[in-house]
Amino acid sequence: MADQPVLARLRFGREDAERDVTEGLLLRGAFLSNAAYRGALSGHKMLIIGRKGSGKSAICMRLMSDGEGGHPGGKALVTPDEAAGEEIRRFELQGLPGDSAKALIWRYVFAVHAARYLVDHAKGAHPGRHKADSVKALGRFLKQNGEAPGGGRLVERLAQGARGLQTSLSLEAFGIKAGVELAQSPSEGARAARQLEIVEQGVAAAFGDLGCDGVVHPPFLLMVDQLEQVWSAEPDSNSMVIGLLLAAKHAAGLYGRSVRFLLFLRADIYDSLSFGEGDKFHGDELRIAWTEQALRDLALARARASVGEELTEERLWKELFPQTVGGEEITAHLFGRCLPRPRDAIQFLNLCQEKAWLDHERERITEGDVTLAGRQFSEWKLKDLTSEYLVAHPFLRQLFPLFQNTGYVVTRAALTRRFEAAVDTLHHDFPAYANALTLQGVIDVLYGVGFLGVRRGNDVVYAGDDGLAVQPHETEFQVHPCFRAALGATTAFDLRRYEPQVAGARIATGSLGPGTPGSSSLNRDDRLLMQLARSCHSILAQVGRAVGLTQDVRDELTREINRVLDEVDRIPAGAAASVGIDVDDHLLAAAHYFTTLAAQLRATGLEEGTGIGDVTRRVEEEVRRLRRAAGGSYGSSGDSHGY
After folding, report:
1. Which tens digits make up the pLDDT trace of 508-540?
2. Across the chain, how many H-helices and E-strands are there?
3. pTM over 0.85
4. Which sign, positive or negative, has the C-alpha torsion 25, 28, 33, 35?
């Protein structure tokens, strides 16, 4: 392997943390410590929140590892599958609301995990105390309730625990005869809560008797991950997550420094919850955020893990990758076309390597490889976005045609026209979501999932850059660069492209003969061409003064006007007729193009404050000037009205 080219060995790891650990080992060798990991490891935060692919499970896997960077104490990970999730979702107790009932089943899960840990931990770490009455009581409780270490799948233990809470647990280990002492409970919920309190008190007593207070040795770490696998946006699913939060908050207070809880939650799930205790969790929240520099650091660390520590940042981005793509610096191009999360970056970078090495056995990635990879990556991400939000927004895929084959800068006015044409179909196909499928509702959804950004000042802000939702007065949006290639939205506006006249080819390739000096016809031709050039410069100057326009829009306008100007510059002075150019037709064709351009600019819906109105008026003014200079007719275009 070592004698292979560097590019053949270059990989950026697996896309999911579980396989990265078991197969690639890159997670162990190239894990990037960030604020979320440090907050989780230190115990300062209990809720790690992030989008799909943002690295939640990577942090979880890192903490579960026994090597460097892992939690040094006891640990357990709960990842409910669909069967276990269904058991929790269906759990109900007479006399308790859904959130509170599901909090009890989660508290039971936590108590059982802690009890199993204590029984095993006491034997190895506290040989003098492992026969303490409280520890022995936990061992008997686990055995009597079918919760002995190593026994049963989570769903089976959940089912048994649910039945116990709904009827009666075996509490003789704690000196309680449940059938007698709990018979007077006023409701099923009250009886279950009292049973659970007895179990939790037994666990807390054992922690105290063993002296496991997080000082002598690290606390027991209990983590819950992959809840999105069992969440369905239904009320009972929300209650399942709310119950988890309430249970973790309760258990953290009960067990103190002996147990540390970490819940890994997807941002869209957490943000959709609404419950009275929600404001009490803000101090426990830590949201995963990735900057471009952090993704660059991650990419370099993973590249080094695959090919060797001798790989430098300069060699990676200047030798193995092309330095620029389409005139844009390589890292800005790559990471600007990813949503800010590790999974996207890993996929895009690996795809570039595959295009170069697997497809062509090149020893370095070319600009063309990156471009091809970008198109495929964009198609992946558009499909992935649909899948990611299929539960919460099943209509998302039907919104994408509103942005296909048009410019990636979209105004509220333009989006209004497109939405009005599609709204009846959307309401017919998704009647349950009709209240959300309004123009503002669609904008909020597309902004929230990261598909659209909103222009604020001179910047375009995407969800996660700040916490402010789209405001009613905000009128200019942009499709995220990640999705533009898949949609065919690769220019700022869908402006009509200026097409050079047929004679252009002859100018470029033919043999130009000298003009006829002193000819009044040629002098007039030159004057007309000079007028067209002045009109182009006048429009360009106005575009330059429109500082409120998005830079991409200014660039696109400038490019198209320069195409008109470049063709004028290619016509040699005094030689237009000799190479077959009818200057009147040429001038009027340019004026016709400018008229179309002005109409398109007016249709964009951009606000006057951007300067687009001044640009449009200047274009129309130059059209009138050009037509007057040519005699006021369209010539061969067939339109004879003037201004």
Report:
1. 444 444 444 444 444 688 889 999 999 999 999
2. 27, 11
3. no
4. positive
